[in-house]
Amino acid sequence: MEIMVFFSLLLLVCSVSTNQTEADNEILDQQISNQQPCPQDIHAVLREMTASVAEQKVRTAFLEKQTQGTVSCQVVNKIHCCEQVAKLETEINKVKQELQVKQVAFSASLLDQGSTETGPFNTQITLVFKRVVTNIGNAYNPHTGIFTAPVRGVYHFDWKVYGSGNVETSGVLFRNGEHIFIAYEHQTSGGVSTSNGASLLLDVGDQVFVRLWANSRVHDNQNHHTTFSGHLIFTM
Q1: Where are the domains of the chain?
Q2: Of 107, 179, 177, which Cα lies nearest the Cα of 142?
Q3: Which residues contact 171 (CB under 8 A, 6 or more apart)?
């Protein structure tokens, strides 16, 4: 009887010990499981890190683009500034040129020296006034007898022709190919002088000159009777 009781007590102790050991193992496994993340948690951490890196790349690219834009603006502003300076210099030079061409005046006589008759001819010829006493602006050409307008504006011209004998004396003012006014006189004997004047609106490059009328004659000598003059009144 005593032996049976002993064995019963021994089995109960072993059962309790075994149950206690299994419970301890479950607790330990739970602690280890809490301390070590599962594969699913590792993937989540990696996704967060990837997203963070991508965000940093976007920020870096934005900063680089913004920096490039700032540099580009500086370059553009510098180019714009240089263009403005060049434009200002051009305007200054233009004003200087206009101030210079506003001073236009000339006066010339037919002969530089000696005495001679010119004409008559059966056609018109351009009179070349060779003795130049004034040519401010160099708009009159003493080799061709032609005045060329250097600036758009209103110009005034005067011309006088002198003749002698029983021949017509005349000179016609032309603007390019346009007959403007004529100075004309016909005297049967002795000397005669005739003159005329005109104010003309000229564009740059327009030409003005005096032609000897067909079948007429002019005279000039050291007294310089036959003349051609002009000057700029105002620009437009």
Answers
A1: 37-101, 105-235
A2: 107
A3: 127, 159, 160, 161, 182, 183, 194, 196, 210, 211, 212, 213, 218, 226
Residue 204 CB contacts under 8 Å (≥ 6 apart), including other chains: 149, 150, 151, 152
Q: Which two tokens stand for residue 113?
A: 């020296």
pLDDT attached to residue 5: 45
Structure-block tokens of residue 33? 């499981």
**pTM, whole model, 2 decimals?**
0.59
Query: CATH assignment of 105-235?
Result: 2.60.120.40
Question: What is the full DSSP assignment across the chain?
Answer: -HHHHHHHHHHHHHHHHHHHHHHHHHHHHHHHHHHS--HHHHHHHHHHHHHHHHHHHHHHHHHHHHHHHHHHHHHHHHHHHHHHHHHHHHHHHHHHHHHHHT--EEEEES-SSS-EEE---SS-EE----EEEEEETS-EETTTTEEE-SSSEEEEEEEEEEEESSEEEEEEEEETTEEEEEEEEEESSSEEEEEEEEEEEE-TT-EEEEEEPTTB-EEE-TT--SEEEEEEEEE-
Q: CA–CA separation, 182 vs 175, rounded Å?
A: 12
Residues 37-47: tens digit of each pLDDT: 455 567 676 67
Q: Which pairs with CB-CB distance under 8 Å and at least 24 residues apart come from 69-74?
A: none
In this structure, what token pair is assigned to residue 189? 């004997």
